[in-house]
Amino acid sequence: DAKTTQPPSMDCAEGRAANLPCNHSTISGNEYVYWYRQIHSQGPQYIIHGLKNNETNEMASLIITEDRKSSTLILPHATLRDTAVYYCIVRVGYGNKLVFGAGTILRVKS
Amino acid sequence: DVKVTQSSRYLVKRTGEKVFLECVQDMDHENMFWYRQDPGLGLRLIYFSYDVKMKEKGDIPEGYSVSREKKERFSLILESASTNQTSMYLCASSPPLSLGREQYFGPGTRLTVT
Fold it and tell me: Is the pLDDT of residue A94 over 80?
């Protein structure tokens, strides 16, 4: 199973872009990169996923390097409600099993 | 919007009791999952189901069983609750592989076993 490495915490000013990095150097060719977040006392929330191309949706953008060994989640205009733990996950196996690591605690400050 | 609901947000049970945690999803998803979340350990998969009456063990199935009699409902059963099963329990559902891979989570049940 491919593992991911994320910084334990980051701070971001409200209204600025939040860039959350993730390393996944052992990712295999058919594994996707997923991002979820978990706001305190709630269940995890799906944000975005990608294989090799950059992706964008209403919540965020995902930039994956050409060698696929790392990626960056971008929240373009962070708000206080974006304060959460952000998980970078590489999908493994049949049945959609997700393996959650420790994640990055993002604190958005006014 | 996909909705995954769990029967209780908070539950307190005594050691040895049989505990039922219920999860219902309204998106006709084939796959359903039960995780537990503990500080420092992240989310760990207990069981999952990819169809009615089908179940597969996850990483930590010991002490748990599951039931899926209807597509929308997936129950987690603690046959004889123990204090080390005090945890946050999260249910999730997802469409089949051909349609997507994202999982949708419920709000969680914080179970305390005394």
Answer: no
